[in-house]
Structure formats: structure tokens, C-alpha cells
């Protein structure tokens, strides 16, 4: 991608994990900000980011990191775990960064809106909740990739009082990082992600735990083939992070989990009844839906 030239005076990234590190790397590679500042509670992550040359300054504290970001030409990106959002909002509130644009990358959006209201008294007009649909089972700065967001979608979930100018500026940043930006309500986002991300992770963890005898018998994995490898890959994701995501989005997750359990019971009944015709019909419907998904994915990459 061609050099875009700086469009931000300063971008402050709170959290130097895979997503935060990928943002820093992408922003530096494309020269989208004059200064990239970062803070992370883990000094080793900040040191890795400095050594990689993807940040210009490491804040000694969160307050130090955002100390110079107080105009509309600055942006603060919260790339912290979902449970850290409310404390981070409180810290920003205490520092009084009232004019700076703020966005986040959390995979549950209703919780972001709730936390903002609890801390600020309302959802600030300069807060643009967001979620990049990109990543992997890997975590930490070592997994950062400057091209992570290319040809991926980013969902922004503004509320009624979110400033249009703020939405457009945050959208522009993601687009310059190679992403396609869409907007929807926080509630709709959480329902969709419960189905397309949160449930699959839950099932992957459950399958691995089941086949391993809850961790006591690992012999089965010696004979696992590609299907198991592909399905179980995301069970290598950060357990603490996914514990908090599932808990935070529990109602939509429970709703889609009930639907899935009904489907499993239906399949169990078909097997018990040796109903070959209905079993094949179910498999064909699923294959057709999966083929449709593959076709959409191929179009996105063209």
C-alpha cells in the first residue's frame, strides 16, 4: 500500500498485545501518525514494541501515555481485555481527556456502552466503539502483524449521540489499514458475534476438553486428523480472555448455544433412528451454507 502521509498528530495505543501491536505496526508502516505512543501494564510488551520500531514513545504510565493527546487530531485506542475497559475509562476520565477521540477493539460492544455510561455518565460523543474481525489463536506482541487488518471487516457500533465526524475519522483509519468498515448497533453486533465467533470458540474448547478426558488422557490426539486440527485450532486461544468474553456476552451466547444443543439432539435422534435420508439432507444444507460462506470469503479477497 502506498505511503498515505500522516493524518493524525498522535495515536496512543493502550495495550500491546497482538491487536494493539498490529495496529502500531500498521500505523507506522503506513505513516498514518506523526507519533505513535503506547502503554501496557506489561513492560516486556512495551520493550518488544520499541525494539521492533513500531512505537515512538512508551508511556511510563497510562496517564503519561495520554498526557499529550488532548486535541481532535489525536486518537486513543483501547486494545485491552474486556474486563479492563471500565478501569481504563475511569483512568481516562480522571485524566480528563475530554476532547480526544477514543475507540476500542473489544469483541463485545454492549459492555463498552454500559461501562462508558457508568464512568462518564453518558456515552461521550467522541467515543467510537469498534471491533476488527481479525486475529488468530495466537496472542501477545510477538503475534503482531502490520497487515493483519487487510481485507478484513471492522465493525463500528456508534450510538445516537456519537459525533459523525468522530465516526468518519475512526473509519478512515481502519480503511487506511486495509479494512472494510461497517456500522451496526452494539446489540446487533453482540448477537452476530455470539453466533460467528463466541459459540465456535466455546465448542472448540468443549470438544478438546471432552476428547482429552478433561485433560487426563491425551492419547486420542496421536490419531487426530486434519478435521480435528482445523476445528480445534481456536481452542489454543487465550483461555482467560475467552472466559471474560463469554461471561460478558452471556445472554446472546446462551441463546445460540440452546439452538445448537437442539440441533445436536436432533442429529442424535436421526442417528438413533438410522434416518439416512434426513441425516444426509441436514449435511447437504450445512454444506450448501458453508460453500456460500467460502464463496463470500473468496470475493472479499479479490
Secondary structure elements and pairings:
Blueprint: E1 8-14, H1 18-29, E2 33-39, H2 43-52, E3 57-58, H3 62-66, E4 74-78, H4 85-95, E5 101-104, H5 110-120, E6 127-128, E7 130-132, E8 153-156, H6 164-176, E9 180-183, H7 186-211, H8 226-232, H9 239-248, H10 250-272, H11 276-301
Parallel strand pairs: 1-2, 1-4, 2-3, 4-5, 5-6, 8-9
Antiparallel strand pairs: 7-8
Structure description:
The chain has 302 residues and is of the alpha/beta class. It folds into two domains: 8-184, Rossmann fold (3-Layer(aba) Sandwich), CATH 3.40.50.720; 190-301, 6-phosphogluconate dehydrogenase C-terminal fold (Orthogonal Bundle). It is 51% helix and 13% strand. The protein is built from eleven helices and nine strands. The chain has helices at residues 18-29, 43-52, 62-66, 85-95, 110-120, 164-176, 186-211, 226-232, 239-248, 250-272, 276-301; strands spanning 8-14, 33-39, 57-58, 74-78, 101-104, 127-128, 130-132, 153-156, 180-183. The chain has a six-stranded parallel sheet. Strands 7-8-9 form a three-stranded mixed sheet, with helices on one face. Strand 1, helix 1 and strand 2 (33-39) form a beta-alpha-beta unit. It is elongated, with a radius of gyration of 21 Å. The two termini are 16 Å apart. The relative contact order is 0.10. The mean pLDDT is 91.
Amino acid at each position: 500500500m502506498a505511503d498515505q502521509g500522516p493524518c493524525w498528530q498522535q495515536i496512543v495505543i493502550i495495550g500491546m498485545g497482538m491487536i494493539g501491536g498490529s495496529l502500531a505496526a500498521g500505523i507506522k508502516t503506513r505513516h498514518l501518525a506523526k507519533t505513535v505512543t503506547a502503554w501496557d501494564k506489561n513492560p516486556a510488551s512495551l520493550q518488544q514494541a520499541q525494539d521492533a520500531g513500531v512505537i515512538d514513545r512508551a508511556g511510563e504510565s497510562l496517564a503519561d501515555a495520554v498526557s499529550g493527546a488532548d486535541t481532535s487530531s489525536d486518537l486513543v485506542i483501547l486494545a485491552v481485555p474486556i474486563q479492563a475497559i471500565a478501569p481504563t475509562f475511569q483512568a481516562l476520565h480522571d485524566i480528563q481527556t475530554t476532547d480526544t477521540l477514543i475507540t476500542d477493539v473489544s469483541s463485545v460492544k454492549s459492555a463498552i456502552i454500559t461501562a462508558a455510561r457508568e464512568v462518564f455518565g453518558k456515552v461521550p460523543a467522541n467515543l467510537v466503539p469498534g471491533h476488527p474481525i481479525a486475529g488468530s489463536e495466537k496472542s501477545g506482541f510477538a503475534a503482531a502483524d502490520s497487515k493483519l487488518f487487510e481485507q478484513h471487516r471492522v465493525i463500528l457500533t456508534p450510538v445516537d449521540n456519537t459525533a459523525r465526524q468522530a465516526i468518519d475519522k475512526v473509519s478512515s483509519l481502519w480503511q487506511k489499514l486495509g479494512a472494510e468498515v461497517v456500522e451496526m448497533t452494539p446489540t446487533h453486533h453482540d448477537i452476530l458475534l455470539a453466533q460467528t465467533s463466541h459459540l465456535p470458540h466455546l465448542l472448540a474448547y468443549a470438544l478438546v476438553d471432552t476428547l482429552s478426558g478433561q485433560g487426563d488422557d491425551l492419547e486420542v490426539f496421536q490419531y487426530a486428523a486434519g478435521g480435528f486440527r482445523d476445528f480445534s485450532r481456536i481452542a489454543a486461544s487465550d483461555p482467560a480472555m475467552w472466559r471474560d468474553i463469554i461471561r460478558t456476552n452471556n445472554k446472546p451466547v446462551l441463546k445460540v448455544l440452546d439452538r445448537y444443543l437442539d440441533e445436536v439432539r436432533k442429529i442424535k435422534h436421526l442417528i438413533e433412528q438410522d434416518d439416512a435420508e434426513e441425516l444426509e439432507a441436514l449435511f447437504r444444507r450445512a454444506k450448501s451454507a458453508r460453500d456460500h460462506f467460502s464463496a463470500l470469503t473468496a470475493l472479499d479477497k479479490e
